[in-house]
Design goal:
The protein is mainly alpha-helical and 123 residues long. It has helices spanning 2-14, 43-66, 72-92, 98-122, and strands at residues 22-26, 32-36. It has a two-stranded antiparallel ribbon. Strand 1 and strand 2 form a beta hairpin. The radius of gyration is 16 Å and the shape is flat.
Amino acid sequence: MRTIIVAAALALSACAGMTPQQIAGTASSGLYAAATLAQAGTVDERLAPAYTSNAMARQRATRLLSERRIDAATARAVLARTDAARTALDAARLAPTPAALEQHIATAREHIAAANALMEIAR
C-alpha cells in the first residue's frame, strides 16, 4: 500500500505542469473513482470537483439505464440536468469576477444535485 501511495505521489508531481484533464475509472464492484489534475490556485482547481461530479453523474445514469434500474425518460432528464451543469461550468471559466464564478459553480451544483436526486427517486 505504501508503495502505491509513493508511486501515485511521484506520478502526480511529474504531472504538475500538465494541462488539467479528467481521468476516471470504474471498479468491478460498481464503485467509481476519479481524479482531476489542476494547477493549484487556478480557476481549473476551483471547477475540477464540479466537472468531475458532473461526469460521474452521467456515468452513473448510463450504468443505471443499461441495468434497467432507471427508464429512458429519467436518463434523458439526468442528461438535461448534467448538460445544464456543464454549461454553467463552462460559463464559469469566463466569469469576470469571483462572485460570478461562485454563482456559476452554485448553479452547476444545483443541477448535479437534481440529476443525482432523479436517479435516487427512480431506484
